What we know:
By secondary structure, the protein is of the alpha/beta class. It has helices at about 10-25, 40-50, 80-85, 110-120, 160-165, 185-190, 205-210; strands spanning about 1-5, 30-35, 60-65, 65-70, 100, 130, 155, 180, 190-195, 230-235. The strands form 2 sheets. Strands 1-10-9-6-2-3-5 form a 7-stranded parallel sheet, sandwiched between helices. A 3-stranded antiparallel sheet has the order 4-8-7. The longest helix is centred in the N-terminal third of the chain and has 18 residues, at about 10-25. The model is unreliable at about 245-250 (pLDDT under 50). Fructose -6-phosphate binds near residues 35, 39 and 138.
Amino acid sequence: MRIVIARDYEHLSCLGAGLVGEAIVRKPDLVLGLATGVTPLGVYRKLGEMYEAGQVDFSRLTVFNLDEYYGLSPADPRSYRSYLERNLFSRVNLRPENIHLVPGQPGNVADACRNYDLAIAAAGGIDLQILGIGQNGHVGFNEPGKSLCVATHLVDLAPQTVEANARSFPDHGAVPGRAVTVGMGAIMKARRILLLAGGREKAAAVAGALWGPVTTAVPASLLQLHRHTTLIVDQAAAGLIRDCTSAAGGSG
Ligand code: F6R
């Protein structure tokens, strides 16, 4: 895994957007996997700026998002669909037909999940997957457990995840307890992964993912087995790994 330690969140966002932008310039019909949450917000803002500046064209890009709360209306501002509309889709020239969103609506979830995996496969798989990491080491909403699911599936969120996501909801009880997430299969098959982590609260998860045993108890630890992952962390999230690597803000 290539590790890049950024000075701060702004630097992390610049480096992350630079990596994604370069990948799109090299392959305009890239298939990009999108994480949501707080961490990639700066990357999406900068990608919007790069588009405005005429540096990156999103018109041939295909995107698949990673996860969605189960049972929230797609129009709900806290849904990940709304998040992506607000923070990325409205800022760049993605074609609506190239946007694929994890199904979070009640109904035939199993079929909807299968169709999502089929759509990823039909697109040729993910070229570049953007990931954040949960404080408990989850990626997507693949939560720690005795086993991990390969396919897109409905999942019960871990109490720690519900707690962490409560910041977007008026009260704790309103946070959906379930979500649909892309499984570890599509993530691990991505040709390239960009893992982003910022803030001291992520330091233990980052260290566990990098140097702990590869275990379903820390889903991000599976990324140690991935051939082409770049981790960009800020100094705070790198707090527990800095003894093991030299800080360089661009090397690694
Ligand atoms: C969201 C996702 C999650 C988040 C993780 C970190 O699409 O897949 O794995 O990346 O929970 O969230 P933030 O960035 O809000 O700390």
